[in-house]
Design a protein that fits this description.
Blueprint (H helix, E strand, L loop, with lengths): L4 H18 L15 E9 L5 E12 L9 E5 L26 E2 L4 E2 L4 E5 L20 E2 L4 E2 L9 H14 L7 E5 L1 H12 L7 E4 L7 H16 L15 H14 L3 H8 L19 H14 L4 H12 L9 H5 L6 E4 L9 H14 L4 E3 L10 H4 L5 H9 L1
Parallel strand pairs: 3-6, 3-9, 4-5, 9-10, 10-11, 11-12
Antiparallel strand pairs: 1-2, 2-6, 7-8
């Protein structure tokens, strides 16, 4: 049963790269110039829940120049497993640019010749062990004890992510945003900016996200977290002096990885091929299909720079989200009077458009908010919103400039 695993994967990656390179205006090279990763520090931050976190640090980066009036800033907010690295390269020999390099840069839809674009790592960022990520969370040292916080770290939510971003902006003298643009969990943050601080935000672009976590999503997030909590090494979150719950984290990330894609991707990339040519999955529990092996490899690589407790805190932040604290969705959205662009993804298995986009759009329109909705198509389901957003490059450009 001969297979060409490298060919399958390379074909999909090349197809995605081709779309990213050809769908957004006249220039497709990476953001001009190397990107500098910076660190923003706060002596203390008071959470929405009333707890105090000392010595807060988050990483951030920017593209373009802040004008004299400081009114040309666009904030990019990142997804669940993302970081601040939205565009450009840290080094000339970096294998890949930031995840939205196709739409951020000179003469691109988010035009860095016109706008000052910035993005920050969230609190409890998943990639806490990655060299270019700075975040404060359960794996950080509690200055009171000198030990990692573990589950003593306060529970934080999307509004806390936004509030720390707001403090970063204030440190730069920015008191108004031309727009907030984010995908997935980043869309939640963009909506929270518009709902919670409407006097600071002129436009909101929410890609593959919603204004609340519906019951189905809450349930799925519970399943994402389950493998970690079932790993004996998790030890109730107290594992920093012993073996980490890497197995549970890897299985959790496999769930995220598969659900963030869609069946056309799986079928077209792998079919029913075996992971090893002469090892029939029907013959042994130790033999796998190629899709199984790929998921394990991808999740293992992600787990190497991630932290299990950070994963659980992100799950909680997403589960508890409702715009501006609700208590109902209509209440939470009431302050959003600025124009809103919603870009749901075809085949999304995380934020189903009929559950996430449609109710939000209807409520915003009912209160007189200008709403534009356009579907992002492609073979990747939820991840269409990252890989193929450039297909709506002209729409994004017009929305940001009109």
């Amino acid at each position: 049963m001969a297979i060409d695993k490298a060919g399958h994967r390379a074909g999909i990656l090349l197809a995605i790269a081709a779309v990213l390179a050809t769908t957004v205006g006249s220039r497709s090279e990476a953001y001009d110039g190397l990107v500098e990763k910076k660190v923003f520090s706060m002596p203390a931050y008071s959470t929405v829940g009333g707890e105090t976190i000392k010595n807060v640090q988050i990483g951030w980066e920017s593209y373009g120049q802040l004008n004299e009036a400081k009114d040309n800033a666009i904030l990019i907010t990142h997804f669940f497993s993302g970081t601040s690295h939205a565009a450009g390269r840290y080094r000339a020999d970096d294998a890949r640019p930031g995840y939205w390099d196709a739409i951020i840069g000179a003469d691109k839809p988010i035009d860095t010749d016109r706008f000052f674009v910035l993005s920050s790592d969230t609190l409890v960022n998943l990639n806490v062990h990655a060299p270019m990520v700075t975040t404060t969370g359960p794996a950080s040292i509690d200055p009171t004890t000198g030990e990692p916080y573990g589950l003593d770290f306060p529970i934080v939510g999307i509004r806390d992510f936004v509030n720390v971003q707001k403090a970063l902006l204030e440190s730069l003298g920015i008191d108004r945003l031309h727009a907030v643009v984010g995908a997935s969990m980043g869309a939640l943050q963009a909506i929270e900016w518009g709902a919670g601080y409407p006097d600071m935000v002129d436009r909101v672009v929410a890609v593959i996200g919603g204004a609340e976590a519906d019951a189905f999503l809450i349930g799925w997030l519970n399943l994402w977290a389950a493998p970690i909590r079932l790993d004996p090494n998790w030890n109730g979150g107290d594992y920093y002096d012993g073996p980490a719950p890497t197995a549970g984290l890897t299985e959790a990330l496999k769930l995220v990885t598969l659900q963030a894609r869609a069946w056309p991707w799986a079928v077209d990339t792998f079919g029913r091929t075996w992971a090893v040519e002469d090892r029939n999955p029907a013959a042994s529990f130790d033999n796998y299909y190629e899709v199984e092996a790929w998921l394990t490899a991808a999740a293992s690589a992600r787990a190497a720079v991630s932290d299990a407790n950070h994963f659980l805190y992100l799950v909680k932040a997403n589960q508890t989200f409702i715009a501006n604290g609700g208590p109902t969705l209509a209440d939470g959205l009431r302050g959003m009077t600025m124009p809103v662009l919603l870009l749901p993804a075809v085949g999304d298995l995380i934020f189903f458009p009929e559950l996430a986009t449609a109710p939000m759009a209807e409520m915003l329109e009912a209160q007189g908010t200008a709403v534009t909705v356009a579907d992002v198509d492609g073979p990747l389901g939820h991840l269409n919103g990252i890989a193929f957003t450039g297909a709506h490059g002209d729409l994004i450009r017009r929305f940001l400039t009109e």
